[in-house]
TrEMBL record:
Class of this enzyme: lyase
Span of the signal peptide: none
Function: Functions as a peptidoglycan terminase that cleaves nascent peptidoglycan strands endolytically to terminate their elongation.
Family recorded in the similarity comment: Belongs to the transglycosylase MltG family.
Reaction it catalyzes: a peptidoglycan chain = a peptidoglycan chain with N-acetyl-1,6-anhydromuramyl-[peptide] at the reducing end + a peptidoglycan chain with N-acetylglucosamine at the non-reducing end
Organism of origin: Hyphomonas chukchiensis
Originating gene: mltG
Protein name according to UniProt: Endolytic murein transglycosylase
Length: 343
């Protein structure tokens, strides 16, 4: 009996000692995790997709953000948060403790990057912007991306976003927008499919860069189509000539359309074909698509640039001819002033 009592006492003592050591160890670990970190400056730290905690903790120690990678690994092992690490780019504050760093990497918000992809650009032009972005990763898609299938906008993304994923996101945004706007379209429009809406919106987008003019230009084109008139849009000629790239003369300067190009029949030249171009001529934005689906009432059927970034609208050919004469007079005056300045 004495032996048994002694053995039980020993077991109890060992348990108490173990608990005391474990408790002391837990307190010590908690203190270490809560200590201010060694870094005196803000750190931008990137966790790559698929990167494990072992690698991340080693890099944090190497970069001087934490004192011990081993302690950080022990902490996440005890907490069971080894698999909770997020990928992305994170801001770690000066002297951040290991606990604060873990909270940032597991629960914090990664730094957001943005890329602005403007309305009115062709798909090829948008893809060049995406390819040139220094933060996006991965190759460009191998399959061609259809003209007009991407929704221009400013897109926010985390570091680690692939170019292919962003392009897919832009295409989905376009599909979602059409699914939202198409059912709310005006009755009696001379377009019968969402794709035709995008085609007409692309012409509107290329004709004016002014938001306040988009509804009027859309209404004018809708009116022309209803009356069986050709759209007669210069950007559609350009698309048929160069797929939307700027036109240059032999000296490398931007030029206007040639008479032979205006007379050339292509699948896009709306001076030579009835109805809409074969495909969109750029990627229109939300406002242009919304404008062609719900245009205001208008009697205008002609318009010409005013030389100041806008357009002059007309209801009759005679009025339009006067506007054209006024624009040409303005243009000649600008050329004369430019020559006088350069002399």
């Amino acid at each position: 009996m004495k032996f048994i009592r002694a053995l039980l006492s020993l077991i109890v003592a060992v348990v108490i000692l173990t608990a005391a050591v474990a408790g002391a160890g837990w307190i010590w670990l908690g203190n270490e995790v809560a200590k201010d970190g060694p870094s005196s400056a803000e750190t931008l730290f990137v966790v790559e997709p698929g990167e494990g905690f072992s690698t991340v903790s080693s890099r944090l120690e190497k970069d001087g953000v934490i004192r011990s990678a081993w302690l950080l690994r022990l902490k996440v092992r005890i907490d069971g948060t080894e698999g909770a690490l997020k990928s992305g780019e994170f801001v770690i504050e000066p002297q951040a403790s290991m606990g604060e760093i873990l909270e940032t990497l597991i629960e914090g918000k990664a730094v957001m990057h943005k890329i602005t992809l403007p309305e009115g650009r062709t798909t090829a032009q948008l893809l060049r912007l995406i390819e040139a972005d220094p933060v996006l990763i991965g190759p460009m898609p191998e399959l061609p991306v259809a003209e007009g299938s991407l929704l221009p906008d400013t897109y926010l993304y985390h570091r680690g976003m692939t170019r292919a994923k962003l392009i897919a996101q832009m295409a989905k945004a376009q599909d979602d927008l059409l699914a939202e706007l198409w059912p709310m379209r005006q009755d009696g429009l001379p377009i019968s499919t969402p794709q035709e809406a995008v085609i007409l919106a692309s012409v509107v987008e290329k004709e004016t860069g002014r938001a306040d003019e988009r509804p009027e230009v859309a209404a004018l084109f809708v009116t022309r189509l209803k009356r069986g008139m050709r759209l007669e849009s210069d950007p559609t000629i350009i698309y048929g000539v160069s797929q939307g790239e700027p036109l240059y003369n032999k000296a490398g300067k931007r030029r206007t359309l040639l008479r032979s190009e205006i007379d050339r029949k292509t699948d896009w030249n709306t001076y030579q074909i009835d109805g809409l171009p074969k495909t969109p001529i750029c990627n229109p934005g939300r406002d242009a698509i919304a404008a062609v689906l719900n245009p205001p009432e208008t009697e205008y059927i002609f318009f010409v640039a005013d030389g100041k970034g806008g357009h002059l609208f007309a209801k009759t050919l005679a009025e339009h001819n006067r506007n054209v004469a006024a624009y040409r007079k303005y243009e000649r005056g600008e050329i004369a002033r430019e020559r006088a300045t350069n002399e």
